[in-house]
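Batch job 17 of 40 flagged for manual review because the log was empty.
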Amino acid sequence: MDTIAAIDIGSNTVLLQIARASANGRLTSVLTAQHTPRLSSGISSTGKISSDSASKLVTALLDFGRLCNDHRVTAISCYGTSAMREAENSKEIVERVKAATGIVIKVISGRKEGALSYLGAITGISKLRRDRLVVDVGGGSSEVVVGKDVKIITARSFKIGAVKLTEELRLDRKLTPDGLTAALESIRHRIQALNLPCASIDASLICSGGTPTTLAGFKKKLTVYDSSAVHGSTLRTEEIRQLVCDLACKSRKDKVRALPFDPRRADVITAGGLLIIAFAEHYGFERVRVSDRSLRFGQLRELIGDEVEFA
């Protein structure tokens, strides 16, 4: 049984997933780790990943490299996403990381990110309808994928994410109810301006990424993150509204206290939550299935030979 690893270099968080792959293609999770270098911070104004964020990324990947060595990993997939696609100094970051860690980052297209996120997000969730809509809310972009079973019909990436919205709308601060309403209306307008793919109202809506998993954990009052309690769980849209309102009306200090299982997401949870609400409203869904197996699980499936299928 081989031990393999996937590293997802997101715009907010960098994630490591180590798993064992059996001969029949079954994946068993061994270890999950994360760092939050927030690569997309400031990109909207400077066009570059900051030196501070780049240093944090190197630190994260040195840590991940040690973990991979400790677990005798035989193959690593390391993909860069929205921030790496957008940054003017992306090539320099790739070279710096390779020199410091030996890990090679491959910057992938938004379409490939969406396709692999779909493949990962639907893994391990029972009772999904054949028609599926996966929305992966990231820091710098959001991937929207329409599929049927394991086949993908449309996979698209949009430059709208939790970190960008937090910076543009100043959503890291404590908001009044009126301020929250105004922020949601602004995000609604942005969503309406996107050329989003069509999806069946009878489809299952699956939301992946740190925002939905954090909201699910907050609802369940987790003190330590528990994938088994979050992955595949259901949130009603009205519940998401209330959860986001509860968090948005808190100070940053109180948000951190409310999210002991992932305090580093306190700054961006309001923007991410409003983004999920706006997507769900746009498509007319009242329920969301939560997935914590996004891009990195798609990468693992790719490593063992599974191919993305387009209908």
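Reviewer: the log was empty due to a logging misconfiguration, but the result itself is present. Residues 49 and 180 are 29 Å apart (CA to CA). Unflagging and moving on to job 18.
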